[in-house]
Design a protein that fits this description.
The chain has eight helices and eight strands. It is an alpha+beta fold. A five-stranded mixed sheet has the order 1-8-7-3-5, with no helix packed on it. The protein has a three-stranded antiparallel sheet with strand order 2-6-4, with no helix packed on it. α2 packs across α3.
Length: 270
């Protein structure tokens, strides 16, 4: 997840309190203790708008401008006070929450603040989407998770934020085609790797033929594309078909991450 993909659904939920996209970015940075963007509301905001839309990247100087340690409470307060109550469901959906979940606004604000912490403390421009995982941890009053658990198995290894946080809608007992389009954005060549389907529920949709997908050797900045068929089976509900990228020894290359998941929302035919 990039800064822009995290910020756009949040900014939309802040209307009408904060209508201007650039003002949102300046206000968010201010909540992080940064003086990188001026608070003056009359200041032109073209640069900040480009940051929100992902046209301009978050720079090292921007990351260094925020408080250390990351001000989780201040960012949580900012998010909670500006996100509109009637937009909370939309925000949760944008981060890939199951449709049946009615999110608690406070827990969601805390989880998004943790997502921002991971973005601003990481050396990478793309990080794992942890909002749903953090939301569950917070809701269950579990100890704060260690970001190191999201570190790749091989130093320098990285993959684009592939995980599709949108849900694919399908009917029961249907065969649908889904496509992996994965880019090696790190400095490690992928050798003898596979995508392996991990069956987590007996009723979960399953690959029709390939539960293990061989990946050819992929150099940094190259892509791997593969289309497979999924059987939805007979159960209605939201399902995450979990895939892991493993090396030749079966080790998970990106542990504790859901970047290769396929999200399916299954319903009975009308």
């Amino acid at each position: 997840m990039k800064f822009s993909s995290c910020s756009e659904p949040v900014q939309k939920s802040c209307k009408p309190k904060i209508n201007n996209q650039g003002v949102f970015i300046a206000s968010l940075f201010n909540a992080m203790g940064s003086k990188f963007f001026p608070k003056n509301t009359q200041t032109p905001r073209d640069y900040e708008i480009k940051i929100l839309k992902g046209i301009r990247p978050i720079t090292i100087d921007m990351k260094r401008s925020i408080l250390s340690p990351f001000p989780i409470k201040e960012v949580t307060t900012f998010l909670y006070s500006h996100m509109q109550d009637d937009k909370i469901q939309d925000v949760a959906s944008a981060f890939g929450f199951p449709s049946l979940i009615k999110p608690d606004k406070d827990f969601l604000a805390q989880a998004i603040a943790r997502q921002y912490e991971l973005i601003f403390t990481s050396d990478d421009s793309e990080v794992e989407n942890i909002v749903w995982n953090e939301y569950q941890r917070i809701a269950n009053d579990q100890e704060e998770s260690d970001f190191s658990k999201y570190m790749p198995l091989y130093p320098g290894d990285a993959v684009n934020d592939y995980s599709n946080i949108n849900w694919i809608e399908a009917n029961t007992y249907e065969i649908i085609k889904v496509k992996f389009d994965i880019q090696n954005i790190g400095s490690v060549t992928w050798l003898n790797r596979k995508l392996v389907f991990i069956k987590e529920k007996t009723s979960c949709p399953i690959p029709r033929t390939e539960c293990e997908i061989n990946i050819p050797n992929i150099e940094p900045q190259q892509n791997f594309t593969k289309e497979i068929e999924i059987e939805t089976r007979g159960s209605e509900g939201d399902f995450c078909c979990h895939f892991e990228m493993v090396d030749s020894n079966g080790n998970n290359c990106f542990p504790n991450r859901n970047i290769f998941d396929i999200r399916l929302r299954i319903s009975f035919p009308s």
